[in-house]
Amino acid sequence: GMTTFFFAVQLLPFADAMTLFFLNPVVTAIVAWILLKEPLGTQGVIGIILSLVGLTLLIRPPFIFHSENGANWTSDKFWGTILALSGSVCAAGVFISIRFIGNRVHPVILALYYHVIACLSSLPFLLAKFPSSAVL
């Protein structure tokens, strides 16, 4: 998740990448409602709808917001948006996994595995010097 976020920061303005990445509570709420049968409630649904409206206003997809010059939707913006949202989905996956595991595993062991997996999954990108040092 963090690796895709760092790639997104290279392609998008930082504020846009942060906003897209921090939609992970919305993704978490939806997935928890579907998979874990967690209650969503009226406030949760309203929050999700408002977040998705905000997402639409932020990324301004060309099929909704027709631009006269077409310059607003570049390849960088498209891929940066995809990467930031995929990072958000990955972060939500971590939260769902932790919720699913619950009290069956000691929190220290859970933190250990999380950080070991994060380090190992980041290692190939770091060895290849991605993302660039300007982002790090």
From TrEMBL:
Record domain EamA: where: 2-59
SUPFAM superfamilies listed in its UniProt record: Multidrug resistance efflux transporter EmrE
Assigned protein family: Belongs to the drug/metabolite transporter (DMT) superfamily. Plant drug/metabolite exporter (P-DME) (TC 2.A.7.4) family.
Recorded topology in the membrane: Multi-pass membrane protein
Record has Membrane as a keyword: yes
InterPro entries found in the cross-reference section: EamA_dom, EmrE-like
Protein's name in the database: EamA domain-containing protein
Compartment list: Membrane
One Gene Ontology cellular component annotation held by this UniProt entry: membrane
Pfam name, any one: EamA
Keywords of this entry: Membrane, Transmembrane, Transmembrane helix
Gene3D superfamilies the record matches: 1.10.3730.20
Transmembrane segments: 12-36, 45-66, 78-101, 108-127
Main location: membrane
